[in-house]
Amino acid sequence: MALKYSFSLVPYMLLLSSLFAAGVATITHGELLSSMIGVQGLIYCKQGSKLTPIQGAVARVTCETADEYGYEGEDVTVLSQATDAKGYFLATLSPSEVKDYQKVRIKECRAFVELSPADTCSFPTEINRGISGAILQKYRLLENKIKMKLFTVGPFVFSPEETDHDKSIPNGY
């Protein structure tokens, strides 16, 4: 099954070029949704010792929330755009996409490897917490036209076959 995606690399190149001027910061509770959130990374296929970028792969970002009183709320989940020919992905979440975002506090966000279009390399691995979820901790603040907190995760890896270690960790935990 081949999935076909196309998107322009120009916005991603602009984001990456602005990283050099941005500092790195750490999340403190409650401040995450004050601007757009971006999560970037790479997705590869690992066959033996060889890593090959996967085009058309998808990552998932899931954030736990709490309401204004501190009670657990609905998780917020977004999928990345399909990876480009170099395996690069970007997932974005803006405050307006979160129901009642003025009253919601993000507790923790994790990025997961989600989907590979490659029939020969479709098993997610735990490399860089691809199955259990890489916690978003440090970001770079991009202040070009759009103010964005950009997190980098991974790289995430798929393999041609499922390993015993990867079977033991359920997706999403």
TrEMBL record:
Signal sequence extent: 1-25
Domain of life (superkingdom): Eukaryota
Transmembrane parts of this sequence: none
Keyword match Signal: yes
CC annotations in GO: cell periphery
Keywords for this protein: Signal
Keyword Signal listed: yes
PANTHER family: OS01G0164075 PROTEIN (PTHR33470), POLLEN OLE E 1 ALLERGEN AND EXTENSIN FAMILY PROTEIN (PTHR33470:SF58)
This protein's name: Pollen Ole e 1 allergen and extensin family protein
